[in-house]
Amino acid sequence: MEIGEFKDFVAKHESPHGLAGDPHVYVDTKGHPTVGIGFNLDRADARARLAAVGANYDDVRAGRVNLTQVQITILFEQTIADATTDAYALVPNFDLLSTARQAVLIDMIFNLGRTGLAQFQNMLAALNRGDYETAASEMENSAWKQQTGTRATQDVTLMRRGLMCDPLPPGVIPVIPPVSSDIPGYVHPGGTGYPGGVITFQPSNGDGTGDGGTDTMRCNFRKIEVFYNNHWITVLDIYC
Question: What's the pTM value of the predicted model, to 2 decimals?
């Protein structure tokens, strides 16, 4: 599972439009006004996050204004980064997991929040000792699995297998433009293509190999850059 596929996997669970997201506000299954790719407008920092991308919170929440693809992308990348930080707090060896298993944890945090995932104590303990079969079984036998349906089934499967065997859909990872000059040192040619010509790129300082040597993982991201209309428009600093 490559980084673009990782994000596409989570996005498809959050929005029927995947990485395109929902530019117009809607109410999610838990009753929260939501926009973009699963961005909860009831979260405490929602107003500040929208202001940071140039969107008016009140107008977006009231449905008077839609988000642009660039705004949707930046909010999603930030939320992925937040979820990654939460995952590290719960699974200290997060960077030793294959990206497929990392995607499962991020997806569960999007779905349940950090507090909700923290309730899976036996599953997290199994993950921290590298017992992936037990971790998958704990997920499979939970009330969450019964309540969540297909999303949970896919998460259980990825946790058990440790990699995504399905071929990557065309266009998920496009040709990445040259990295901007402010990223020093080694960079990895991986990125995520969003609709509308928006591309995010992130270097890695911790590439490794997942179980069986077939699944490359990337972790410890320090920057995410957004490329749009032939120029770099923003830099997000990530510490996890």
Answer: 0.70
